[in-house]
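Q: Can someone sanity-check these two? First one:
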Amino acid sequence: MLEIAIDIGGTFTDIVCLQDQQRLCLAKVPTTPHDLGQGVQQGVARVLTLAGQPATAVERFIHSTTIATNAILEQKGAITGVLMTAGFEDVLEIGRQKRSQMYDLFLDPETPCFLAPRRQRVGIRERLDAEGYVLQPLDEPHVVQAVATLQQLYGVQSYGHNRPTHAVEFVNLRSVHSAPLPRPQLTEAAPSSSLEAARKDRRPAYFDEYQVYRDAPVYQRDLLPLGAQFDGPAIVEQPDTTTVVYPGFTCQVDDAGNLLLTLHTR
C-alpha cells in the first residue's frame, strides 16, 4: 500500500511516498508554472520508481500547494476578472468589515482587492433568493459581452479548464418535488377500565395556592380511560413528560387520548 503527499511550491514540487507504513520515498522536482500537473506527474512517477510499485498500489493521495499564498504575498498571477451578481461588485473589497483600525476613515482596503481591482469586477443581471430559487434568470448575452470587454480593455486571460467539447458537468442541482398525501387517520386509544385503575399512587406536592404540601394523585397517562375527568391537584406521568394539573383546573381525556385542561372561573 502506498500513500503519496505532494506540495506544489513556487520553485519546487515536493513528493513524499509512504510504503506499507514503514518506508519513506522522497522526491523533489521543478515546479512547472505553465501546467502544474506536469510537475506533479513527474514527481509521482519518480517516487513510484523508488518504491518499485505501480500507480494502482496508491491508496491515498494528498495534495497541497503554496501557489495561492505566494500569489497573494507577491501580488502576482493571472489578470483576473470577476463576474458577480449586479449590486454585489464591492463584496470582495468590503469583506467582513474587519479592520485593523476600526475608526480610521482613511484606511486603505485591507482585503486582497488587487486580485481583481474594481474596474475588473462586473455586475451581471441575475438574482437568487436566500433559498437558491431563481428570482431573475441569468442574462447569458450579458455574460458573453462582459467577458469580451474584460479581455479587450484589461487583457483578462481566459483561465481555467475549459473544454467546449466536454459534456456539461452539474456542480449543484436543486430538485423539489411535491405530491398529494393521504390524510392521516388518528387511531383512538382503547379505553381502560376506570380512572382508579390508572392511578399509580399519591405523592406530596407543593402548590402556591395552598402554601403547604398536599397529597396529589399520580396517574399513568396511557392507562387513563377515554372520557375520564378529574380535578386538580393531580399529576399525570408518561415516559417523555409529566403534566401537572394545578388546583382550580379540570383535566379531561378526549376521544383521541389528549389531555384538555380547563381553568375554573372564580
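And here is the second, same format, sequence then C-alpha cells:
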Amino acid sequence: MQKTHKNCAVGAISLLTKMNESVLAVSAAAILATLATAGTAPANEVTAMPATKPDRLIVRTWGGPWRSSYEAAAAASFTAKTGIPVEFDVTDFNEIQVKVGQAVSAKARPPVDVVLTIETMAYAAQVQGVSIPLDPHLIESLDQLSSVAIPEGATNYINVSTYSQPIVYDPAQVSLPDSISWQEIFDPKYAGKLFVTNTYSSLLYPVAKMMGLDYTTDDMTPVFARISELSGNIGAAGDEEEFIAGMEAGQISIGVTLAATAIELGGLKWIVPQEGAVVSSESFYVPAGLPDDVSYWAQIFIDETLTAENQAKIAAGIGEAPVNLQATVPDFMKGDPAFPITEADIAKYGIVVPVGIEARNNNDWQAAYTAAIQR
C-alpha cells in the first residue's frame, strides 16, 4: 500500500499561504447554501444530464493500489452505468496541481478531468479558482457521508478517504502498554531509534494537545521547543519510503507514520496515544475549464467513488478509512483507533485540523518544525 505523498508536501502546501482567507470565515450553513446553488440548476432542481458524453474521463491518482483499487471499483461501475471509459494519470500530485493551474490561467483545457489529491491541495485549488463548485444534486450518497467528507469551507472538493498517523513500532525491539501518551517517544531509551515525518502536522498537533495548548489560538513556540527535545532520539526523518527503509535496515524501531505503511511492511504494531492521532484526508476535485459535459460526468464519477459498495472496496485496497458510514468496514480496520470512521471514534481518537489553520500558518510552522527536528 506504499505511497510517498503523505509527508512530502512541504513545498506544495506553501501554495496555501497565497489563499484568500475569507474562505475560512464561511459557516457550515453558508457552505451548504453554496453547494446547493452550485452548477447551472436552481437549488431545488436536479442538474440536467447533458446531451453528449465525453469519449473518456481522465482521472489523476497515485499508482499501485490506488490506481488498481479505483479502477476495479468506481471506474468499473461508472463505465458499466454510463458507457464512458476511465483512464488514469499517475502524474505526481504537486506536478498535476501546477499543470491544472497553468491550463486554467491560459484558458486551455486541463490535462485531467478529475483530480485525486490530498486535502490541502484540493483546498488550494478551490481558493485559487482552478476547480469548480460541486453540485450536491449529483452526489446521491451525500446523506450517508461523515462530517469529514465535507469539512467547513469546502465547496469545490469532497474528501473520499481518511488516514491517521499513529505511533508504529517493532514489537521485537519495543514493548508498549495498552495505553500511552505522546510523551512516550520522548523517553531517552529511544535514542537514535525514532522516526519522525518531515512535515509538522503529525507531531505538532498531538504534542500541543499533550501540553494542553490549543493550536487554533495559542502560540506554538513552546510546542516546537518541546519537539526539539526529540533530537537525541531521532534516527531518521522523511516520508513512508524512509520509514520502510529505516525499519528494514534496523536503523529505527519506533516512529510516526501511516498505519497502512505498517501493514504493508508487516510484523509491526501501532498504537494511537491518549491524545489521539492526526487524521488527514484524500480529496477529489474537478478542474475548471473543462467542457460542460465533461464537468458533469466527472462529478458523476466522484459520486460513484462514494457509494457504500465502492467505498468498502477502495478502503480494503488502499488501507484508508471510508467516509461513507454505510460502507462495510474491512476486518483489519474494525475496532482499530488508527482507522476512526464514525463521528464518535473520530472525536475520541482523531485530531482533525481545519485546513484553513494550516493555510494561515504553514510556512512559519514548517520552518519551525524543520529546525526543531535537526539532529
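A (reply): Looked at the second one. Residues 10-163+280-344 form a domain with the D-Maltodextrin-Binding Protein; domain 2 fold (CATH 3.40.190.10). The mean pLDDT is 90.
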